[in-house]
Structure formats: structure tokens, C-alpha cells
Amino acid sequence: MKTKRSLKRKLILSAVLAGILILIAIFSEVLAPNDPYQTNAAMIRKAPSAMYWFGTDNLGRCVFSRVLYGAKTTIFATFLLVAISFVIGTLIGMLCGYYGGIVDEALMRLADLTLAFPQMVVAIAVAGMLGGGLVGAMIALGITMWTTFARLARSHTRTVKQEPYITAAKLSGKSGCYIILRHILPNILEPVLISALTQIGTTMIGISGLSFLGLGVVAPQAEWGSMISEARAYIQIAPWAVLFPAGATIVTIIVFNYLGDALVEYRNHP
Amino acid sequence: MKKQIAKRVLELLLLLLILSLLTFALMYIAPGDPAEKRLSSQGVAVTKEVLQAERERMGLLRPFFVRYWEWLCGILHGDFGVSFKDDMPVAPKLWAGLHNTVILATGSLLLSLIISIPFGIFAAVKKNSIFDHVVRLLSFVGNSLPNFLISVLLMYVFCIKFDLFPIIAAGNLQGLLLPALSLAIPMTAKFTRQIRTEVSTQLSEDYVAGLRLRRVKERYVLFCNVFHNSLGHIFTIIALQIGTLMAGSVVIETIFRWPGIGKLVMDSINARDYPVIMGFVLIMGTIYVGINFISDLVNRIIDPRVEV
Q: Which CATH class is domain A77-258?
């Protein structure tokens, strides 16, 4: 059986790795040796070299710099989407759990409804209807995503609501809004936040998948999914233009999934 | 029991009705109006008069629910409307695509079950052994791989490096293998993980200890009791994976040019051919809802204590 200490070590290791990736994404402009959008007709599909670490693509752009810039796009789009869904979902969940009533009933039915349909199929259709673009892809994924957080926040709110200190706060005349933000939120935050962290890997798969299909990030902007999709056409001649962004995607998703797993394991350990 | 099932069927019908309403509403979230899209997808120069005439012809000036009702009645008669692109009925295209997709999906599902059931069971039996650790590591990595990446990598290795398969999937078994494998890998990872957890939970139950005390053969306990008890769970996880499988098939079919419904819908998205997209969502949603319903029923048959 694993001890709490070894789980803690695993958690710290994964957090450090995730931290490094986030730092790379933040400082991608500083780290990138070349301009990722600078095309160069003389350097088309060149193999990796000292100048271009990951080689160049179809338009002579530096793949290494594009992978770095892509980290920014992919990681931040994912974080933003998870954060927005988290905030909206938690707010709705707390309001529903605290006040109950007909609005609660309606919103929760709606949330159940999204469970009944295949999420990514809906996302592909919605993103397709919206006509591509990163915002469209994020809306398409967000439509179903908030419900996970709302459901979780609601069930925890209903438990916390029974506690004596909530009754005490009510008796001392605090408003519902105050109680929700001051007393309920801090008490339900942890489980919902953990659930948000475990969603990062899946969300990243979703966003890069939509970009790969051409329903996410639009052409010149660097994003891993769309880079792979573009470079796939000439994989025979310049495999590096596919393999490096592919490797970056795999590593990033693995690190964030590992972080989520480590966190859940650490939390559930007695 | 009958009453329960009747209730579930009613719920199912209601769900399908809502699904159809949402699908029809999809048309409205798209920027611009359908008449304009239809004209532009056919390459007609759009003027105000042409647009107005087109709106009239498509019946767009009538109320939402009247049009929804007509659309729904059409679908109940198997008519999914006509394509914006070539004015041909959409239904035959959808069914032909679905046929190919079902072949692909079934193939990959079988492939991943053949791998994940024995691996999951043995990893649970030999818990914390090297085998278990390797299986867990592989399933963790497999779970983190987006299927578009897997298919591109498989294509690179098998079609280009070793030249074993054609890049464009022909409609035969050889052409089926790579797309099915790309779909199966992440699915196998999930299945193995869940089967392992389920079997190991079952193994720590009291009844297993009881059977062991009675000197029932370990193999008998494993395959007759534990596996039987895990079966319901396995059906549920399969049913839950169907949605991922559907979305995955869109990606894989596009990459390998497998002529399924997923490739059809991607082509239609690029051509702004909305009736096909709506038909796709409706069909996929119906299958998903239906399969979940069936999986509940199967669970009920395997284990009569389960409430439907």
C-alpha cells in the first residue's frame, strides 16, 4: 500500500512538471529562437538543425518556435475554458443548492439532459455550425462542461447547508448572497477545484481535437492540433513537423492527467 | 418490472423529442440565415431579391414550431430533407455513411474488448505485480493520447516507415485495421483501467473469501462468480464509451478517408451543408440514448436487483 508521503512526493513531482509547462507557455515569446510566423522560402521543410531545433515546416517556419507558441495557445485556451466553466458551474450549482425551488429543478434537468447526449458529438456539431474559430470551439465544449461543476457544487452545497453555522448566519440576518460567498464557497471549493484540475487533460484533448478538424484555432496561429493537421499532408517529406507538436501534445496531456490522478489519490488516501 | 420499463420508455421518447428540438435549433445558432447559406454553398451571387425569394421557397418565413413539426414529421417518415449542396435527399447518404461507421466502430470495440478484458482481469488478480504496473502505466498513457494523434502516428509508422498498409483505407479488412486500431487504443486503455478496478473490488468482497474457504477452485471463482458479477459494470462502461467512439470516428474517418458518417459530416461542415449536420446529430444522439437504454435493460437482466 502506498503511504501518504509517497503520494505527496508524486503530487509535488507532477505539480512541478505542470508548473514548468505553464512557465514555458508564459515565456514562449522569450524562449522562441525564431519568429513563428516568419515564412522563409529558402528554408522549406528543412530537417532539424542548430538554427531550427525542430526543423521547419511547409512555409519555412520554425517548428520549435511554433511548438512553443502553440503551448501558449493550447494551455491557455484550456485553462480559460476550464476556469470559465468552473466559475459559471460553481455559481449555478451553489445558487441551485442553496435556494432550491423551480429554477433549481429546471437547471438541474438541463444539466441531466446534457449527460444524455454524446458530448464531443455535440461539440463537433456546434463548433461546425459556429463556423470554426477558437472561441467557437470553446463555446462548443463549454456548453456541456459547466454541468459537471454545477452538479458537484450543488450536491456539496446541499450538504453544507444543513450545518449549524449556516443556520446561525441566517439567524444573525446575513443575506443569502453573503452566506453563499462567505460560508458555502470556502467549504465546497476543494472538491470542485480538484474536479476542475482532473478535467484539464480531457479538455486539452477536446480543444486540440477540434483544432485538428479545423474547427478550432484558425490557420496561421500556432496550435498543436492544427499544426499536426497541416503538416500531416507532407509527413513523408518532413515528419518532424508532425512528430514534434505531437510529442508536445502527448507530454502535456500526460503531465496534466498525472497531476489530476496524483491529486485525487492524495485526497482520497486516509 | 413492466411498469418500470414502460416508464423508462416514456422517458426515452421525451428525451428523443428534446433531442430533435435541440437539433432543429442548431440551425439557429449558426451565424447568418439558412437561405443565405444555402445560396452561398451553391455558389449563387446573393442579392436582396434572390435572398427573399429563397426564404419564401424554403418556408423560412413561417413560425419556428410549424417548421419544426414539418421537419420532425419528415424524419419520422425517413426524410431528412435535401442537401444544400446538390439538392439530393440527405437520408441515403446518412444511412450509407452510418453503415460504414458501424462496421468501423464494431471492429474497434471488439478489438479493444479482446485486449482489455483479459488484461484487466489479470492485472486485478496479480495486483501490484510487475504485470499490473505495466498494464497500469500503459493504460494511463493510452488514456492520455488523443485519437487523432494515434492515427497520425500509426499512419506514419505503418504506412510510411514500413509501408505495410495503404494510406487511404480501402473498404476491406486491411483498410479497416489501422482506423479500428486508432479508435481502439484509447478505448482499450479506459476499459482495462475500469475492468481492473471493478474486478479487484469484486475480489475483495466477502463472498470471494467465502468461496475460497470452501475450497472452490480459484479459476472457477474468477470466471463464474467474479466475472459474472462484473459483467453488468462492463456493459455500462461500454455504453458510456459509445459517445467517445462516435466523436472519435469523425476524426479517424476524416484522417483515413473511411467513407463513414463522420467523414460525411466533416465534409458537410466544410461545405456548410446544414441538413446533413442536423441529421448526423439526430442519428448519433438517438443511437447514444438507445444504447444507454439497452445497457440499463441488460444490467437488469444480468442482475435482477438493479433498478431500471
A: mainly alpha
